[in-house]
Design goal:
By secondary structure, the protein is of the alpha/beta class. It is built from 23 helices and 22 strands. The chain is 38% helix and 18% strand. Strands 1, 2, 3, 6 and 7 form a 5-stranded antiparallel sheet that branches. Strands 4, 5, 8, 9 and 10 form a 5-stranded antiparallel sheet that branches.
Length: 636
């Protein structure tokens, strides 16, 4: 009597067994004859050292051709239990025994979720004083809506582990507000008594203080909506109307938890905007001053909260090259991937030493702020290249993340990134003696949160759809025994303005589902690589990873109007973009000719590094429109 199992016609269902799941074993035998029986013996080892064994009789299911098929059900089993089983059969001719098979109970898939948070350098370095030196308030406003709350929200779900990227240039600007008395232009206008505003300043308030999502930040608040209608209908504003507008522009940017009640911050302070929300109108100058003081409480608590959560092991903080440059372009613009018709290269810019300085400065800043060496890095815009790898490794970076499009175009023939078994793993990338782990994000799932789920009426349904897609596209598709990790990376700040209530209902629903789901386990990237015995996560060291060859020079963006596939055309190739690179090159060449160096001319190199940031080149050209192009040109 012949016996078989773990073949296409006789599988284990599910193949990867998660906690509380029952396991169905299909077993095939040949030939068909009377007097046959099939059974399974099994041995279960628990993480605590206890064990159990048993036997289950198989039930005949059907005959097909010359074969018989049998079924056994085992389980359910608990997390991290190790199950070894053997199939047996008996017929008139004697017994047959299969080879022992072992599986470990755990998630079908690990999920590495990364929230990327960044703002470009909004400071006008030529401004004579700190007050009003920032031309935009977005660092301050995202701080009170997103930067503190995104970390605090995940802390409410202790079984959810994830990664947050805080770029050095963002943290430097927050520090500039709270430690060096810097302010932005609109903050100065908020604190100026409405009756003292001159005509130009009144118009600046009326034109700039409705810069918020109409449906989610303005219309839900009756007084703000009233002022909005008043402005659209060109009705005059009284002094009190202007003061109320000064208040409401700020109130609309507080996170929902601060608008709804008091929040005890990690610093020991309590912050709230509820009193002003409830007052609704007729604010005084002292009310405005008190409201701004609440913003500064929140900004002061951002780094301490992130540091506390990282030290507790729930989150991993990572960073980006300091001023958010596109590293492959600093290394050599001639090696940029351009595939849009009409695109051209600028006069060559090639300063790999600047690229390395941006990485080094980020690593040093990280250690100073968070009290430990960095482990991972999200390159600006996910832009990577083979030549950039040593720059990361030399400064202690153990892993990078980028887009699946880079994987698809790497190597001689590309990798099949549509295959979950290929996409859902870290790869070892090597350049000379330097090696680093690289994760590749799934674009569609990342974009679903950023650009799709905000339109759902029911955010519970949106969260269910996201988790359902993880399972149907990935967790249920794996064919091997190896662990698999799905990478999801997206903007962790700008997306939430399109959601009701700052996306808090969606994020809570998502985290609740992930906490309860036995098939998916959230991890930080470093946790997946190093392992976590307390969470039963095995280590996945660099030497055990498959190698990705000839890492493609690309980013997480496929430029509009270009050939399909990720590239670098968003930051180079158009006339205006190329003019920016040539101006940057002239400034850099001048420093070389004068013999200047970072240690002898630190201010010159600091401003140069600022100008090397990606954000200026993002807005140059016709492929992107900031709505404030002249201001970005002036800053550059």
């Amino acid at each position: 009597m012949q016996l078989w199992h773990l073949t296409p016609d006789a599988p284990r269902l599910p193949h990867r067994v998660s906690p509380t799941e029952h396991v169905r074993l299909i077993i095939g035998t040949w030939p068909i004859e009377s007097g046959q029986s099939v059974w399974v013996t099994y041995y279960v080892e628990s993480p605590g050292g206890t064990s159990a064994e048993g036997r289950s009789e198989a039930v005949w299911q059907r005959n097909e051709g010359e074969n018989s098929y049998w079924q056994v059900e085992l389980g359910a089993f608990a997390q991290a239990e190790r199950v070894t089983y053997t199939v047996h059969s008996r017929s008139l001719a004697g017994e047959s025994n299969g080879t022992p098979v072992t599986f470990r109970v755990g998630p079908k898939l690990y999920l590495a979720l990364l929230w990327h948070q960044h703002q470009p350098m909004y400071k006008d370095t030529a401004h004579p004083v700190q007050a009003g030196s920032y031309i935009h308030p977005w660092v301050r406003f995202h701080a009170i809506r997103d930067y503190y709350s995104m970390a605090a929200l995940v802390a409410e779900h202790p079984d959810v582990h994830l990664t947050i990227n805080l770029t050095p240039v963002l943290l430097w600007q927050i520090e500039d507000y709270i430690e060096r008395s810097a302010t932005d232009r609109l903050l100065e206008l908020t604190l100026k008594p409405a009756e003292a505003l001159n005509r130009k300043e009144r118009e600046e308030v009326l034109s700039g203080y409705f810069d918020a999502d109409w449906h989610n930040q303005i219309f839900p608040h009756p007084r703000y909506k009233e002022l909005f209608a008043q402005r659209r209908e060109r009705h005059p504003f009284t002094v009190q109307d202007l003061r109320d507008l000064q208040m409401w522009f700020n109130l609309a940017w507080f996170g929902k938890e601060f608008r709804d009640g008091e929040v005890k911050l990690v610093t020991g302070e309590t912050a709230t905007a509820r009193r002003f929300i409830e007052q609704e109108r007729d604010f005084s100058v002292s009310d405005l001053e008190e409201m701004i003081a609440e913003q500064y409480k929140i900004m002061r608590a951002i780094i301490p909260l992130h540091r506390q959560l990282q030290e507790g092991g729930q989150i991993e903080i990572l960073t980006t090259p300091f001023y958010h440059p596109i590293l492959p372009l600093l290394i050599d613009t001639d090696h940029a991937t351009l595939d849009r018709p009409g695109a051209s290269y600028p006069h060559r810019f090639a300063y790999p030493e600047d690229a390395e300085s941006q990485v080094r400065l980020a690593a040093e800043d990280y250690r100073q702020r968070f009290g430990q060496p960095l482990r991972g890095m999200w390159p600006a815009e996910g832009a990577v290249s083979q030549s950039a790898l040593p720059l990361f490794v030399r400064h202690g970076v153990c892993w990078l993340a980028t887009d699946r499009g880079v994987l698809a175009r790497s190597g001689q023939w590309g990798y099949n990134a549509d295959d979950p078994n290929i996409l859902c793993q870290p790869y070892r990338a090597e350049e000379g003696e330097h090696a680093i782990a690289v994760f590749f994000r799934d674009t569609a799932l990342s974009d679903a949160i950023g650009f799709h789920y905000y339109g759902y009426t029911d955010y519970e349904q949106a969260a269910c759809d996201f988790v359902g897609k993880i399972k149907s596209r990935f967790a249920w598709q794996f064919t091997g025994e190896e662990d698999r990790v799905l990478t999801v990376v997206l903007d962790g700040e700008n997306a939430w303005g399109a959601y009701r209530d700052d996306a808090r209902p969606f994020l809570h629903a998502l985290y609740n589902l992930l906490e309860r789901d036995g098939e998916i386990q959230t991890v930080t990237f470093a946790e997946y690589l190093a392992g976590s015995p307390t969470r039963d996560v095995a280590a996945h060291p660099l030497e055990a990873q498959n190698q990705v060859y000839e890492l493609f020079t690309g980013s997480w963006i496929d430029e509009n109007g270009s050939a399909p596939g990720v590239d670098l055309g968003t930051w180079i190739g158009e006339d205006e973009e190329n003019r920016g690179w040539e101006l940057l090159g002239q400034a850099r060449d001048f420093l070389v000719k004068t013999g200047a160096a970072p240690d002898t001319a630190p201010a010159a190199f600091e401003t140069l590094y600022m100008a090397e940031g990606s954000d200026w080149f993002w807005w140059f050209g016709a492929d992107q429109d900031s709505g404030n192009d002249e201001e970005f040109d002036d800053l550059f």
